[in-house]
Each structure stands twice: as structure tokens, then as C-alpha cells.
């Protein structure tokens, strides 16, 4: 039976790969993101896909998605919280004051990485299929090893206790909640060819299998966590980083 799968950040990279993975099983996918043109193009590549352009860092955007889901589907079987990004790629603070710049960096990262996931989840959690619903969060290896600036890593790490609390809250309804923590993933806008070759190779060398990850590696893990086979797995973080989280 076809399920309804809502994927934030579904227009590119890991989100788009995840949408394709679920659609291949005949599931209905709803792609969510800020850029309508990107979403429209992505949805056009996936049979039966719908999309909602919304800024999930504010209550209005999350409520917009919830209204669409309520009107079109009624319930959500799988929610994949993939939207996010590197705050360093967002507009910089228009100030030279170091404290103001630090406040800006932390605020931006928590807005785009933490609030986007929390607000969408809060907007849809009462509509999760019960039993059988799945809530999934995209964290990062940075939550364990840092990100150089602290703010991005902190914004991803904040998802872990939220997911645990949510798993306890939704568990009695038969809804599982899990986190996936990728490392270096090629072919994504997050990395997007901006990483110097030497730094990228150093990241690859930290893995135990000698390669960068792909969007498909993460998508297939999310798909499995949403399957009946993972029905007794909840409040867990699955590392998808070639063992790099352990270090070498």
C-alpha cells in the first residue's frame, strides 16, 4: 500500500535521492523547500510527486505544509527532516563586532538546521500514521567531531535529544524516531565542489572504507529505517560516514 512521505530539503542532493528511493516503491512523495523552481524541477522527475514551497525556519512555513498534507492526504507515514545547510554560506552579519558576528552565526545555523526540523515535526506529529509512522532526522558527523566553528555542529547535535524525547512521546502510538549522521557526501549542494582537494582527501582518508559517501548511501539507510524491518528500532543514531566518526 502506498505511503505518504514528506521530505524537507527534497529538491536536491540527499533529499532528492531519498524521494526517488521511496517513489521507486510506489510511495507518494511530498517535496518541501524554500526554492519553488528547484522543487518543481525535482518533482517533475518523480512520478506522482507533489511539492510545497515553504520556509520551515518559521511557524508559517511549517503550518503551510501541514495544511497541504491535511487537505491532500490526511496523514503522514514517513517524515524525513533533511532541510538544512552551512550557515557560513548564508548572508554574513553586516557588522565587524565579534560578539554580534558570533550571535549571527549561531542564530543562523540553529534557524536553518534545528528549527526547520523541529517546527515541521511539531506541525505534523499529530498526523503521523499510528501505528507505523516514521520520523527521521538528518544530523551530521559534525555533531560528534565538531565543525570548526561550533555553530553548525551544535545545531545538528541539538536534534539528538529532541529525537530521543520525541521517540518517548510517540512510541506508545507505534511511531519510531531515528537520526542519521552522514559524513562527507559527494554530489550535494552542502559540499558542492567548494572543499579544497587536499581537505576532501583528508576527509576520505578518515573513513575505513576509503571513499566519500553518496546521496544514495544516505537515502537507502533512511528507506530502511522507514521499513517494517526497522520497526523495533527507535531513539537511535545511525552513522553513515564510512566509520569516519570513530577517527583513525
TrEMBL record:
- Name the PROSITE patterns on file: ADH_SHORT (PS00061)
The entry's keywords: NADP, Oxidoreductase
According to the record, the segments passing through the membrane are none
* Pfam short name (any one): adh_short_C2
Domain called Ketoreductase: residue spans: 3-188
Does the record carry NADP as a key word?
yes
Q: Which CDD domains match?
A: SDR_c (cd05233)
Q: Does the keyword NADP apply?
A: yes
Similarity remark: Belongs to the short-chain dehydrogenases/reductases (SDR) family.
Report what the protein is called: SDR family oxidoreductase
